[in-house]
Target: NAD-aldehyde dehydrogenase
Amino acid sequence: MAQPVQVTIPATGRKITVPTGLFINNEFVPSVDSKDTIETVNPATELVICSVAAASSADIDRAVAAARHAFNTTWGKNVTGFERSRLMNKLADLMERDAQALAELETLNNGKPVRVARDFDIGDSIQCIRYYAGWADKITGQTIEVDNKTKVAFTRHEPIGVCGQIIPWNYPINMWSWKVAPALAAGCTIVMKPSEVTPLTALKLSELFVEAGFPPGVLNTVPSLGSVGGAALASHLDVDKVAFTGSTLTGRKIMEAAARSNLKKVSLELGGKSPHIIFESADLEQAANWAALGILYNSGQDCTAGSRLFVQDTIYDRFTALLAEKARALKIGDGFGEDVSGGPVVSKAQYERVWSYIESGKAEGAKILNGGEKRQGKGFYVDPTIFTDVKPSMKIVREEIFGPVLAVAKFHTEEEAIALANDTTYGLGAGLHSNDANQCMRVSSALEAGTVWVNQYNMLNNNVPFGGKKQSGIGRELGSYGLEEYTSVKAVHWNFGEKLDWPF
Model:
């Protein structure tokens, strides 16, 4: 059995025992054939937290086998929706009990403020699991009239089987719940690959999974490099479905691997370069608050970040001055600090990526309204950076940055705003602010995005579907639509009266 380590939270003195092995069949075990480890780092201090086992492709095979055995014996069609619901609600209770410790571990590994991790990420994750627990005993098919005198047809929504789930580092617990909850509700079993950057809370949640009473093999957690574990899941012949959240580039590789192997079902929540439009009739104070939230929440590390802001020319100067004031008011620092609303970006690689875009914006002639200067000292901090005078051809306008970097442009007419907003290969989110109800309806209809916010931004609900268009992905998460990604519809044709003559 792989040995856990004890991690001390410097800010609180809390000691948290963290598993370091691979979680397979409800046990933490070492790799079967590898001594490789994954080093986790605190992005606020750049210090190593601990190392965990890195799964090999043979370990993925072992985890898939465990998930298949559970699906065929103790889960899948072998357990009632009532029992699935009971276990899921128990898991949610345990997460609620341990919310503070989970938040502190999340902050240590990811960098986000502990208050945000606890009250938003974990709070929403608990609600997500409870929401889908409510669905577990309500997954129903249809009875379809064929011929009332001789035949009837009905459908069954059956669990699709073993699911490979690959989650990112920006919302480690939240993305875990978005993937795990609908899969469990539908009766699927899971092989979960957390990001190699932030694996600690996924391993800790696996302990709670055992405590809740789930059978062995229902959930298996295999930290690994994406090129190893993610690739193995995407191409595995005994995985029935793969769900991925991350970059469009990696999403393409997963879809190709799924097609080349067993044509497994795929759902992809990918990148974005989301437009956010401010019309002259908007409440400018509120619009500035939402625009700031849209790009600065989670230090801009958000697939739906409103990173392209379009402001009507009649209010442009007034609004950008107000927005800069909002950005300067946001406190960025160590996630354990007082009144901190944003932490460091997650890793050195991400820090260097974000700064390369900031330097690109400067080189291409964009004007810096706020930020754009590096801090001294330790920590992967990027202060809110706002560019104005941007052109559509600039890299900071075309490409996803995944940091607190905003490109602001002006427009004159509604038609121009829509054209600018839709001028992207992505289609995950979009937002608009206006007090003209007719305009809100026209523009929300015209925007090419899976989610459109009107007079708000970046707010999601567990009962409302979420997903992308164009190169932002396929499939939907959350809401009843999320269950469809984990079920297979079987049609049963029942003849009770027609006699077949032969030869016909």
Summary: Residues 5-270+468-490 form a domain with the Aldehyde Dehydrogenase; Chain A, domain 1 fold (CATH 3.40.605.10). The two ends are 65 Å apart (CA to CA). Residues 426 and 471 are 5 Å apart (CA to CA).
